């Protein structure tokens, strides 16, 4: 017996609404507990080029951490270096990337990065992944205001994305971003929240 098309549309809309509410709820939960996460005894600490990155997943599940090779990119006619690391669990992963906008080789010359850049980075990433039900909010990460978003992948998995500026400088009456940290996570909400609540990026030199 054939299922009426209007019934299929209603089911599809219902599934979409539930997925959207799920992402919104997860983002709200993540935002609410970022500053109250307990830390375990052994946080992850890694050197990424001129930066040191530390975080705590506060989890008992097994995972591995691997540092990637630096990648050069072009933005506004200048070359930049992005340093990254990956965290891999049984069926989940986290990627953390730190882009240096004012490395020593650039003579400390500043480039203006829009303050709403974080929101755009999160939205662009989730859109490029083919996510549906994208939701983005402003939140505090590593002591500074950034953007946190989530969406439903084509595989129906939830993915989180965050972006913030771990450092900046006030020059000529403007706040300029000198580095960007962005991360993507398919880890469960608890581990992702712990990561966001404990991540710290610091320039070593």
Multimer state: single chain
- How far apart are the termini? 70 Å
Largest sheet: 8 strands, antiparallel
Flag low-confidence runs. 1-15
Q: What global shape is seen?
A: globular
Bin the strand percentage. Answer: 35-45%
The helix content is 10-25%
Number of domains: 1
Structural class: alpha+beta
- Calculate Rg over CA atoms: 19 Å
What is the count of DSSP helices, taking H or I runs of 4+ residues? 3
Order of helices and strands: HEEEEEEHEEEEHE
Strands, count: 11
Mean pLDDT: 80
Characterization of the model:
By secondary structure, this protein is of the alpha+beta class. The strands form two sheets. Strands 3, 4, 5, 6, 7, 8, 9 and 10 form an eight-stranded antiparallel beta sheet that branches. It has a three-stranded antiparallel beta sheet with strand order 1-2-11. 25% of the residues lie in helices and 42% in strands. The chain has one domain (5-203). The protein contains three helices and eleven strands. Residues 1-15 have low confidence and may be disordered. The protein starts with a helix and ends with a strand. Helix 1 packs parallel to helix 3 (189-198). The radius of gyration is 19 Å and the shape is globular.
List the keywords.
3 helices; alpha+beta; disordered N terminus; three-stranded antiparallel β-sheet; 42% strand; eight-stranded antiparallel β-sheet; 25% helix; 11 strands; 205 residues; globular
Give a quick summary of the entry.
The chain has 205 residues and is α+β, with helices and mostly antiparallel strands.
